[in-house]
Amino acid sequence: MATGQRIDPYANFTFLVEIDGITRAGFADASGFDTTIDVHEYREGGDNTTMRKLPGPTKYGNITLKRGITDDHELYDWLLGIVRGTPDRRSGSIVINDLTGAEQVRWNFRDAWPTKWSAGEFSAKGNDVAIETLELAHEGLERG
């Protein structure tokens, strides 16, 4: 009897971020890939023992991206455009590569826009990298 082939999970540090074709692989963290479907409960006449449950609206969590502060301010400029009243929604992907760099898993998000940016904290007592955080609101997330 033949044995099954072992399938290992992918490493969580081999990812990159694409936003409208612009690849940014230098993010330290990417989080917030979640989907929640609200549950509507109701009682059906004549059945007093069980609540019926129906799917309601779907909600998507904001995607949070963290990276070291560099001279690249393209993502900050995107936020600045929103602040100044220029709507600019973009689609993108979070891609997990295997250890050889080949793409394995992709999550596609659509109609995203920056809703929060933070320069992080600075301390003269430490030697950590300065981290900026960008939070993206979006209207859909699918695994490709």
Q: What does this molecule look like?
A:
The chain has 144 residues and is mainly beta. It is 7% helix and 50% strand. The chain has one helix at residues 74-83, and strands at 15-19, 22-24, 27-31, 35-43, 51-60, 63-68, 90-97, 103-118, 131-137, 141-143. The two termini are 34 Å apart.
Instruction: Please outline the major beta sheet.
Output: 8 strands, antiparallel
Radius of gyration: 20 Å
Q: Which consecutive residue ranges, at least 5 long each, have pLDDT under 50?
A: none
Helical content stands at: under 10%
Q: Identify the quaternary structure here.
A: single chain
Pfam families: Phage_T4_gp19 (PF06841)
Protein name: Phage tail protein
Organism: Kribbella ginsengisoli
InterPro entries: CHP02241, Phage_T4_Gp19
Short description, anyone?
This is Phage tail protein. 7% of the residues lie in helices and 50% in strands.
